[in-house]
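Meet today's protein:

…
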Amino acid sequence: MKYIVVSGGVVSGLGKGVTISSMGRMLRGCGLKVTSIKIDPYLNVDAGTMSPFEHGEVFVLGDGGESDLDLGNYERFLSINLTSDHNITTGKIYRDVIARERRGDYLGKTVQVVPHITNEIQDWIERVAQIPVDDSGETADVCLIEVGGTVGDIESSVFFEALRQFQFRVGDENFCLMFVSLVPILSDEQKTKPTQHGVRDLRSLGLSPKVIFCRCPIPLAQECKDKISAFCHVGPKNVISVHDVNNVYHVPLLLLQQNLHRIIAKELHLESVMQIENPDMKSWSEMAHRLDGFEKDVKIALIGKYTGLQDSYLSVIKSLKHAAIACGRKLELVWVEASHLEKYNDNGEEKINSEEYTVSWGKMKSADGVVIPGGFGNRGFDGKCIAAEWCRTNKKPCLGICLGFQAMVIEYARNVLGYEGATSTEFDENTKHPIVLFMPEIDKETMGGNMRLGARNTKFTHQHDDGSMSTAQMLYGGSDVVSERHRHRYEVNPAFVDEIHNAGLKFVGRDESGERMEVAEISSSEHPFYVGCQYHPEFKSRPLSPSPPFHGLILASCNMLNDYTAEQMKN
């Protein structure tokens, strides 16, 4: 197994995740199997209990792991399926070491950071690197490891010490350290001092990078590369410019142009197994360049609760982009805070004439389609229901996900069935009409890892009244069963299912028991696209293989859905 470790310096948010994902895509093009590990130095066991405002979205893995959003980047770029163990946190490491100490596994030894914590980190990396992550079922050739945060952070110091030891455990020919740094421009001059200081800090820990990625708005000047090379103990060709490009899918091509694949082949002795001369990047390159040439736009309104931080909906945004690429459109995303669509504020005062109300409604009405994503808590839920009702009655293409799906169902119960005050027990435990309720097997006292999580099967069990196949099933290629990832504690109340279904909002997809509602939609003869799903389809979307529900939303928003589904039925 070959290991490539990527760390960063100067500031966080430089794009280590995109850089390492792009490198992995390039290596796959060179014929290698690639896996990936993300190290997060925080004390949380996982990202599941973190606020989206704190850490961005929680990316759900197939085994139910709640992880850092960078694992989503890895899966999307590399077309792999990772596990919860591919996200290492300080919380997980200490939890396991303390559990071993309590069991007496250390035979009376004093348990210390060195060697017990550092050995646990190294053992974890070696074990997880062997887990197959693609359909071949084979172990990867290369394991990419991203160390979160920046060099010099107190919380990440134990991981750098473990990696210092790890380079000797696996041998120099199997270990390559890379460093991502910022090259700012001041007075029209590219400044190298931040990179010099970052590398100096890294080398003081006993780790010396073999490749340095330099983030800069414009391509790095050769004199700047030479200066970094001289002061940071790497060859000039190993200083890679990662400058701004038209779209993120150009980054693997950018690394390839600067011969990073040749550098890796030499450093890790992979010349005999890599396709160095003719890497297979054709389909990826065509996609990246095709995206640059799109002239037509598709405008989608995202009705959210966490619109102050776009990373809160990163996978949703990426899924919309993947679908737009497949439809030959440039995505124009407009953000609408759900609570701004509500007629009254928290004090019961009417805000119908307020600017935020007017602007938000204007954004939604001007969009070609609407997506209502998931979330937790009462704030903005009525706004989601209002958006769902407006889309339903005005025949605006709409996709609801998780809480958005529940909003569609509750809105239908309120406005079509006449259940005044209908809501979820998440918001009102004493409601007369509990359309959505807490799942009985979930523990109400424990927060972390205590939901219906991970990959679950959905069966398409019902057709429409005219005998036609559901839109959702057609988008999935007519499959009877699909597997998608879940993250929820509440479900549609089985007591109301038949009434809602018979009224016209058809529950066409259900779990394998037939008791849990997974997909609801209105017939395409009555609405161009009105689909909700309890699961999170965004977690399985890929640049070259868009998520079917998102693909359907964009197709409908571009008036292309009928032609697409007709073609699907022919095949």
User: Anything to note?
Assistant: The mean pLDDT is 93. The longest helix spans residues 113-129. The longest strand covers residues 452-460. Residues 85 and 128 are 7 Å apart (CA to CA).
